[in-house]
Design a protein that fits this description.
The chain is mostly beta strands. 12% of the residues lie in helices and 49% in strands. The chain has two helices and 13 strands; from the N terminus they run E-E-E-E-E-E-E-E-E-E-E-H-E-H-E. It has a four-stranded antiparallel beta sheet with strand order 4-3-6-7, with no helix packed on it. Strands 1-2-5 form a three-stranded antiparallel beta sheet, with no helix packed on it. Strands 8-9-10 form a three-stranded antiparallel beta sheet, with no helix packed on it. Helix 1 runs parallel beside helix 2. The protein is globular, with a radius of gyration of 18 Å. 21% of the residues are buried.
Length: 185
């Protein structure tokens, strides 16, 4: 499991905070290889290696990674939804033991007196509730999520409220790629 959060959006660098849950069969010294690559725009691929001593069993690792020259994520109506793919590879004895990839965008969203700001710029929220895409949630596919989000974009929506449920991770990635903010509630 890998959870990410970006902070300190600036001109030179952004911080990517991670929480990674690892389960080691036995204690071992490993290398964590992080690859941060632009997903839907041209840019530099960054590789960061960290050496860690793992204990046997389940454990949580936390830390910070620096993303150089960050490209901000914008809603589709304000700019381009620049997304990155971060891949974590766990190397043991020089071989990849496990790997996980996740898509993310670097953005700062805040409410100031109930006025929304994205990356420091005021944004007018236009959206709707998003109930489950199908009453049989397991039948949803990345393509169906992308289609639902394209319909929202075509209706000039820049935010959807995920109402009373949690969607599959493919939905959240599709929203990032479509340039649609999500409000989970």
């Amino acid at each position: 499991e890998l959870r990410l959060r970006t902070e300190a959006l600036g001109a030179a660098a952004a911080e990517l905070r991670f929480n990674a849950t690892l389960d080691a069969a036995e204690a071992a010294d490993v290398t964590l290889r992080w690859t941060i690559a632009p997903k839907n725009f041209a840019g530099e691929v960054q590789v960061i290696e960290q050496r860690r001593a793992l204990a046997g069993g389940r454990q949580e690792l936390t830390g910070l990674l620096e993303v150089r020259d960050p490209q901000a994520w914008w809603t589709h109506d304000l700019g381009h939804p620049n997304c990155y793919t971060v891949t974590l590879e766990v190397l043991h004895g020089g071989q990849v033991s496990d790997a996980h990839a996740s898509t993310f965008g670097i953005r700062q969203f805040e409410l100031r007196k109930w006025i929304a700001y994205l990356n420091g710029r005021r944004v007018f929220i236009k959206g709707n509730n998003y109930a489950p895409g199908d009453t049989r949630i397991a039948t949803m596919t990345p393509e169906r999520y992308a289609h639902d989000l394209q319909l929202a974009v075509d209706c000039h929506m820049n935010m959807l409220r995920v109402h009373a449920h949690v969607e599959h991770p493919a939905f959240y990635e599709a929203a990032d790629l479509a340039g649609v903010l999500l409000w989970q509630g």
